[in-house]
Recover the amino acids of this structure.
């Protein structure tokens, strides 16, 4: 999963980023509300961790504008404020959960799992499935029947994106942004290399799922008849 962290305390933001990495998530950091909203509106994130007190634009405004734009990415709000009225304001703006500082890292991860699980209509948030494949998010294992293979970080992120979208097309641009990030110099051929790696692993697993290329558009999964 790719997580956006919007937190103006840079040390805390980095700590949260390290925590995400330790749980095999990719984290992007920004430190003010306007940058946070701009990043969030890209639609490439699986969840957003959002501080309330931010320079430029507060967290309440960020989540309100995000929802007004039709973006339903799960939002976990963080704040040092403990008043009930503030928690109510955050939830009313469209946040999915409200956690006060200081917080326990295990509690934060549990909250994050809860809001992403809710987004996935109650399915097991630790597993993605498509055709005869299972992608185990905690271990980066791609499983087909009795066979399994461990994916590299980028293979895992690309496969997760493809399985989440099923037979819907995922563009190369979307993969470049969500897997390599905005500041990367990666190009289309980087995506093509990892798609090739994944196709070889699907062949090794003897899966009935294949990755199809739509010229000038991107990729999607297909179950062989």
């Amino acid at each position: 999963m790719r997580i956006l962290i919007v937190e103006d305390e840079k040390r805390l933001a980095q700590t949260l980023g390290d925590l995400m990495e330790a749980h095999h998530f990719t984290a992007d950091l920004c430190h003010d509300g306007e940058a946070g909203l701009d990043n969030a509106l890209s639609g490439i994130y699986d969840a957003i961790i959002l501080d309330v007190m931010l320079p430029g634009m507060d967290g309440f405004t960020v989540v309100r504008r995000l929802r007004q734009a039709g973006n339903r990415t799960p939002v976990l709000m963080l704040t040092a404020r403990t008043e009930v009225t503030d928690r109510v304001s955050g939830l009313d703006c469209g946040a999915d959960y409200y956690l006060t500082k200081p917080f326990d890292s295990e509690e934060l991860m549990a909250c994050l799992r809860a809001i992403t699980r809710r987004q996935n209509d109650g399915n097991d948030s630790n597993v993605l499935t498509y055709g005869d494949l299972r992608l185990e998010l905690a271990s980066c294992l791609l499983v087909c029947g009795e066979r399994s293979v461990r994916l590299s970080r980028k293979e895992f992120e690309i496969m997760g994106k493809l399985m989440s979208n099923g037979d819907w097309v995922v563009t190369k641009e979307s993969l470049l942004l969500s897997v390599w990030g905005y500041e990367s110099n990666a190009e289309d051929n980087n995506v093509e290399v990892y798609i090739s790696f994944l196709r070889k692993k699907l062949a090794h697993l003897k899966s009935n799922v294949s990755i199809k290329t739509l010229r000038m558009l991107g990729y999607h999964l297909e179950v062989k008849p």
Remarks:
- The longest strand covers residues 209-214.
- The chain is about 45% helix and 25% strand.
